[in-house]
Specification:
Helix content is 10%, strand content 45%. Strand 3 and strand 4 form a beta hairpin.
């Protein structure tokens, strides 16, 4: 009986790790392998220092800075489809008491070229359990491409 209770406890704790997320291949942490702007490597961005983590409908994007100081941004995400294309929409318009919407920890990660206080529609170019390629075009016509690889 103790073995059965132990097995049930392990199964329940593993299921709890996803916070009832059931988000499929997005769940976990992804390293930014590369980032280009108009086909050229992004200036002043070391992609290896940025990770994206997904759980439930929350996205957390972290830039590991010098001396282990990091910039941490939190938003929500959703999958959408329109015109035969699939999108990952990142929403950095949230706020809370004392923090204006789209600011502080809810500010869009500017080092990725994301605009402030908006929903960013990233189109899936590739969507697998180990690699994602996302693209979007900003208001000035710059085309961004992000290649992410699953770390865990």
């Amino acid at each position: 009986m103790k073995k059965i209770l132990l097995i049930i406890s392990i199964i329940l704790s593993l299921a709890a790790c996803q916070n009832d997320g059931r988000i499929g291949s997005l769940f976990g942490t992804w390293g930014l392998a590369s980032m280009t702007v108009n086909g050229a490597p992004a200036e002043d961005v070391d992609p290896e220092l940025t990770t994206w983590s997904f759980q439930n409908n929350i996205v957390r994007i972290v830039l590991d800075g010098p001396h282990h100081a990091w910039t941490d941004r939190t938003g929500t995400w959703s999958r959408t489809s329109r015109d035969g294309k699939n999108y990952l929409e990142l929403d950095f318009t949230h706020g809370e008491d004392g923090i204006a919407p789209g600011s502080g920890p809810y500010k869009a990660p500017e080092w990725l070229g994301f605009p402030e206080n908006r929903v960013v529609p990233l189109e899936f170019v590739k969507d697998s359990s180990r690699e994602m390629i996302l693209t979007w075009t900003d208001d000035d016509g710059k085309v961004y491409v992000y290649t992410l690889k699953k770390t865990w």
